[in-house]
Fold each of these.
Amino acid sequence: MNLIFLGPPGVGKGTHAKLLMEEMNIPQISTGDMLRGNIREGTELGLEAKRFIDAGELVPDSVVIGMVKLRLQAPDCSKGYILDGFPRTVAQAEALSGFAKIDAVVNLIASDAKIMGHLTGRRVCSRCSNTFHTSRLKDEKVCPDCGGALIHRDDDKPETIARRLEVYKRQTEPLIAHYQETGLLRNVAVESSLEANHEAIRGALGLTA
Ligand code: ADP
Ligand code: ZN
């Protein structure tokens, strides 16, 4: 199954995409993780992307589209994949339709208060990219999964969060109507426990227990 996870920053796209990835044995493709990987490795693409990410703006379509197109050609994508954080603009969605056949778009919905709480308390493992919330961590400075350093992303600081939410509303939210029209949209409210939310996503995709 070729899936897209849609929704505002901090709604839990990454967390839920990872859970589903493990169950379905298909890769989660997070453009945010890929871009941050490029920044860490100091590639040209990373250098170009960094100033946009730091400002809470979107990285230009041409950069991200090329990156995803290449990634989807890798052998591990042949049995399906979960796109997490892509497409984020109508232009990206249109480009994607030229090189991928999407089966469903999961649109995660949560209140602004919940989203803010997720973002301000989020810590990310610098090695495996898993995310954790301060409310669930004790005092760990390292990743409970792999021992990598846990970091507070610069763009998870309050000033940049506000900008990212604005950018989401203006540039990404129109995708909901776009995928509604194509009949691929599956709305899922993610306001309960992680486990219940995961089940709701599975239900929306017609995956039985
Ligand atoms: P979140 O889902 O919490 O916003 P991501 O890790 O998906 O975080 O994205 C972090 C940043 O990376 C975005 O604010 C944006 O600058 C950049 N980015 C990620 N995916 C895309 C994309 N598809 N198009 C443009 N920029 C992107
Ligand atoms: Zn880790």
Note: The domain at 2-110+172-204 is CATH 3.40.50.300 (Rossmann fold).
Amino acid sequence: MAQIWKGVVREYADFMPEHILRDVVTLGEGGNALIAAPAVGAMLKEITGVNAKVFIKFEGRNPTGSFKDRGMTSAMSAAKGKGAKVVVCASTGNTSASAAAYATAAGILPAVLVPDGKIAMGKLAQAIAHGAKLLQVNGNFDDCLVLARKLAENYDVELVNSVNPDRIQGQKTAAFEVVDELGDAPTIHALPVGNAGNITAYWKGYREYYTANCSSTLPFMWGFQAEGAAPIVLGHEVDNPETIATAIRIGKPASWEQAVAARDESNGVIEAVSDAQILEAHRILSAEVGVFVEPASAAGLAGILKKARTGTFTPDLSPSLDKGEPMNIVITCTGHGLKDPEWALNDINGNSKGSEVEPVKVQNDLSAVASILRLPAPMTERDL
Ligand code: F0G
């Protein structure tokens, strides 16, 4: 009989602090099987000669369509256990959608602070649908986070951004799932970096599993920021971050130090990718892998391809390569394409891609449809 998934807090209860387990709030998040991406493996082979098995960890499959749900189940469980009446978060959209859904499930009022404009419509709709108090701040994400932190310091309100350690507890389970499925850590784990909570959580998860002898290796953590919002790459804060990948439009990541630690302790990298590279990876994911993501989610694949093309994807990364075995690469795609679908239809300037995406008009007639599809004529009775 199939096992029914109980959500990440209960599934990984042995790795959760006690206070999170007392009153679990879950919408059934996690349990997202890896998706094989042989088309990406073939591209890497062609560019670098390296044999790799590439897998997508598609976090768009979570209840609110992003990886945030993993951390929100644990943060909201802790908040409910404490008797919180109001939670607050700053968000580029996904955190607010997730906080709103989980707060609703917990019977807590969600207040969300989002930057004025530059939030994908799908995410705003989610927060509104779940009954969040949605406040648009005339500033960017970094300003919103400062406000949210002050609100939580000065009022009886729980902060559910990833600076809350209870968020990381749930979010780290994505690394557990990867190891559980592959039997060990991958050689490389690539993912987008914005506020840097996710890279922090993955690295914590990989280390905890390693320490518990659930894996025998640790991955190289490869994080990618958008070029116009790449403070960690530049080594200084960015006052006016800009990128089409609005989810990672962040100039002062809260978990900056932890991200640098994940990079350095894993001998990994944090590099930048351009908006054009992000959109190219977005297209490859949808048209060649079968996974529809929002732009920020494509930064991990964009980074892998950039490193392959610039010759910095070093083939001596994995001892298993000596034996001629392919290395495993896992790329996290953080959010669903339905949240921000315009990028399937529009180019980098927001203009329609034209005939490439416009439907072909056809008469309501069988042979007209078959002819446009260039289908060979059906066999007639005479042919038989
Ligand atoms: N990808 C997506 C789709 C995101 O929504 C975010 C962050 C990231 C990547 C980056 O993850 O911040 O942990 O480094 N979104 C936050 C939000 C900031 O408010 O929804 P990170």
Note: The chain is about 40% helix and 15% strand.
